[in-house]
Amino acid sequence: MNHQAFSRRQFIKTATGVAGLAIASRVFGAAPNLPEAVRPKRTAVDQVPLGKTGLKLSRLGVGTGSNTGWAQTALGKQGFIKLVHAAFDKGITYIDTAETYQTFEWIGDAIKGLPREKLFVQSKIPGRPEDVLAAIDRHRKTFNTDYIDSLLIHCMVRGNWTEEWRRVMDAFDQAKERKWIRAKGVSCHTLPALRAAAASDWPEVHLVRVNPQGKFIDGEKVEWGALHTNDIAPVMEQVKKMHAKGCGVIGMKIIGNGTFTDAADRDKAIRFAMACPDIDAIVIGFTTEAEIDEAIERMNRALAEV
After folding, report:
1. How far from 283 is each of 57, 101, 230, CA to CA, in Å?
2. How far apart are CA 56 and CA 51, in angstroms?
3. Considering only CA atoms, which of 164, 196, 168 is closest in space to residue 184?
4. Residue 225: what pLDDT?
5. How far is CA 131 from CA 84, 171, 300, in A?
6. Which of 71, 135, 282, 290 is the most buried (most CB within 10 A)?
7. Average per-residue pLDDT in the chain?
8. Selection from 52, 64, 43 nearest residue 107 by Cα
9. How large is the average pLDDT for residues 112-133?
């Protein structure tokens, strides 16, 4: 036998098989038995699909509303802008804000000079404005952008919010038709509101409070300020339903609203989120580059072990 020819044929066969596995993993998702040598490496700064919205964002996002944004405003405007740019330089393209955050008016200057097409900006509107379209347009003007990637109805607590906020929801639909927003959704702060969100076909994006310690996550008590410890299981049950419907799911309060001062708690929470296939991305409020670097490192390590 010609060993040289045999080796060449075997090489081509092996290479073809590996290529086929790689293509299959891109089309159908990484197979659990894919050889480690060719398994795609996942990282905190990957561009990941947000449900079936057709949008992508970095797996890790920068939150700008820690303690309603006071933690970030303490940096001063230039310090805040520097932090956002540093995050972008590290590969984080997702910026999370809201009209009620103290940093809201700074977002336009914070993203100035960054390539808009590479950014994913998510914002939120509280309450029921008299002129919802004008409120949405204010976001565009404040951010100096033609569109908001994802706009949410903020902090729902009542189980019938999909009825009470119908006028707001209809205006969001109009804004999407005008291409002022690319995706619409909701953030909830109680289990009744979360269940209503999961049952509704209106939201395309859900921002959900998630950590395995149950700190600052949704409970049965219908009260915005009910920020005690709750069981994570009912929350994850709704998250699973949301994801199954093709909705984008983003986890927040990963670090327990900043209360996880023990590194072991932060690591546990990040590992929990990274191991959940129903969560597309997470957002964490940062005040220093060191905090960003730590989150990226912990996420990368957790993703490598999933």
Report:
1. 11, 15, 20
2. 9
3. 168
4. 58
5. 31, 9, 43
6. 282
7. 89
8. 64
9. 97
Burial of 109 (0-12, 13-18, 19+ CB in 10 A): middle
Can you tell me the distance from the alpha carbon of 75 to that of 87, in angstroms, rounded to the nearest whole number? 15
3-state SS, residue 57: strand
pLDDT of residue 24: 36
Q: What is the DSSP letter of 64?
A: -
Type of residue found at 146: D
Alpha-helical segments (H) within the chain: 3-28, 70-73, 77-89, 107-111, 132-143, 161-164, 166-177, 191-199, 233-244, 263-274, 289-305
Measured torsion, CA atoms of residues 288, 289, 290, 293, in degrees rounded to the nearest 10: 140
C-alpha span between 117 and 120 (Å, rounded): 8
161, 195 contact by CB (below 8 A): no
Task: Please tell me the predicted confidence (pLDDT) of residue 185.
Answer: 98
